[in-house]
Amino acid sequence: MLNIIILAAGSGKRMQSKIPKVLHTFAGRPMLEYVIESAKNLNPDSITIVLGHEADLVKSYISNDNLNIVLQESQLGTAHAVMCAMPMISSFDNEDSNTLILYGDVPLVSVDTLRSLLDSCCEGMSILTSVSDNPDGYGRIIRDKTGNIVKIVEHKEANNEQIAIKEVNVGIIAIQTTKLKQWIGMIFNNNEQMEYYLTDLVKIAVTNSVIVNSVSPKKSWEVFGINDHIQQSNIERVYQYEQAKNYMSKGLTISDPSRFDVRGSLRFGSDVFIDVGCVFEGLVELGDDVYVGPYSILRDVTIEKNVRIEAYSHISNSTIENNVSIGPFAKLCKGSHIKSNSKIGNFVEIKNTNFGNKSKANHLAYIGDSNVGSNVNIGAGVITCNYDGANKFQTIIEDNAFIGSGSQLIAPIKVGQSATIGAGTTLTDDAPAGKLTIARARQKTIVNWKRPKKN
């Protein structure tokens, strides 16, 4: 059997934030979610999360599915947090039962590394260690002449010789559940910080002639923790760079993997190109031969083949069919469906609209709550006035219509097939098919008018 305890009670003072540390995000998700996901991938019999600071807020962000939640009312150290979790740990008397202790602020440890750690605790206990060129703040691993671990010394309590050691304790422990039950009550807070240190388990194991094994991750960044916003930023870049390398190995062309962000899932076909500074959120699907220009943001989007997204375009909750050109500086909002061979140009916003085959809005237009047919031309400055301050109404533009520049279509309204709307028209009634419709005030010149001047 396998029990997992996740320690997530700390406030994270160095984050200088009212948000609990484990809810701070990278790649669009709270760091605690990554730890829970890794824990679930190990198929444990139980997962217990120890909460403390803003516990109710943290609980509201995590799924309670098969999770035990316990409260550490006073943060008295890592061993004390484990003591709080012990009533939830099952099978104390089963020699085959192990307990894995994880940390909510160490989110990138791979499942393979955790499995190796569990495999190595067959003799009683195993800890995750890492060799660091900058070990400040970490407990040092003390070994005897034969290489066996004899104790862990906290950084604040280490002498000069111990400070020079570069092998450090990451904090993650795998231990036989029966031994954890026996030893957790033998930990005392007779130290400078007056805290109950979980690392004292090592000293207890050695005293009981139990060998303490160790495992190190294949990649050093797996054990990076997040204690401040600098470390949060570092982990973000590590994670995104690893994502970029994985995608590139599968055929995606990324202009600069150090300026690439996926905050969800990205699926792609062949010969897809991603320029610098792009952000992908939610589920984004890109078909063959798609080009995404620099600094574009795509969120929950399906894009078919041979689509070109020019720079600084923002697209969310939309579908784009084959051979479409978007942008630059275009915005497609929820419910937009852009059909094949059409064009949405610069500074055009589309919302909740079906935009037909071979239709185009080349620049400076707002098309909302509309149904646009095929081969429609929408001129610069056209607005579908879909909102009366309380309710939304639909604009229908049928096939082959031409909407002149600077026109306003006051919904609900219908423009018939092959109709032409003269530039500058404010359309308040349906425009008949095949006809030219113009609605402008009569032009006049005010002879004696003078431009006002500043006093």
UniProtKB/TrEMBL annotation:
Keywords, ordered alphabetically: Acyltransferase, Cell shape, Cell wall biogenesis/degradation, Cytoplasm, Magnesium, Metal-binding, Multifunctional enzyme, Nucleotidyltransferase, Peptidoglycan synthesis, Repeat, Transferase
Cofactor annotation remark: Binds 1 Mg(2+) ion per subunit.
Protein name: Bifunctional protein GlmU
Renumbered residue ranges of the record's region Pyrophosphorylase: 1-229
GO cellular component: cytoplasm; membrane
UniProt keyword annotation of Magnesium present: yes
GO biological process: cell morphogenesis; cell wall organization; lipid A biosynthetic process; peptidoglycan biosynthetic process; regulation of cell shape; UDP-N-acetylglucosamine biosynthetic process
Lineage, uppermost ranks: Bacteria, Pseudomonadati, Pseudomonadota, Betaproteobacteria, Candidatus Kinetoplastidibacterium
Pathway(s) the chain acts in: Nucleotide-sugar biosynthesis; UDP-N-acetyl-alpha-D-glucosamine biosynthesis; N-acetyl-alpha-D-glucosamine 1-phosphate from alpha-D-glucosamine 6-phosphate (route II): step 2/2; Nucleotide-sugar biosynthesis; UDP-N-acetyl-alpha-D-glucosamine biosynthesis; UDP-N-acetyl-alpha-D-glucosamine from N-acetyl-alpha-D-glucosamine 1-phosphate: step 1/1; Bacterial outer membrane biogenesis; LPS lipid A biosynthesis
InterPro entries to which the protein is assigned, alphabetical: Bifunctional_GlmU (IPR005882), GlmU-like (IPR050065), GlmU_C_LbH (IPR038009), Hexapep (IPR001451), MobA-like_NTP_Trfase (IPR025877), Nucleotide-diphossugar_trans (IPR029044), Trimer_LpxA-like_sf (IPR011004)
Residue spans crossing the bilayer: none
Keyword Transcription: no
NCBIfam families tied to this protein: glmU (TIGR01173)
Positions contributing to acetyl-CoA binding: 380, 386-387, 405, 423, 440
Subcellular location: Cytoplasm
